[in-house]
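Course assignment 3, question 2. Fill in each field.
Student: A.L.
Task: Predict the tertiary structure for the chain below.
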Amino acid sequence: MSDIMQVTDENFDTEIMKSNLPALVDFWAEWCGPCRMVGPVVEELSKAYEGKVKVAKMDVDKNRQTPAKFGIRNIPTLIFFKGGEVAQTIIGAQPKTYIEGELKKLL
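Answer field:
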């Protein structure tokens, strides 16, 4: 798929909640059409903000605990974390400009 970090239920706390950097996690699934639309945008942002924001993806079909913990019922869901807390949530496919605008608020 890409070189974006793939987080799991097992490493989510270590990689995202305890990260020194703000983080963006894309909760997605292989079968989800809108997820495939958002995927390239997340990848572009990962490259553009490398070293400033940790960007990761979590497959909700393979990882059930973490999406349940954050009440994810629809995908794609993008959750922005800062200091181990949820800073913002975007549900559904949104334009790059909107996602990037929310990302900039973390910095």
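Instructor remarks: The radius of gyration is 12 Å. The chain has one domain: 5-104.
Grade: pending
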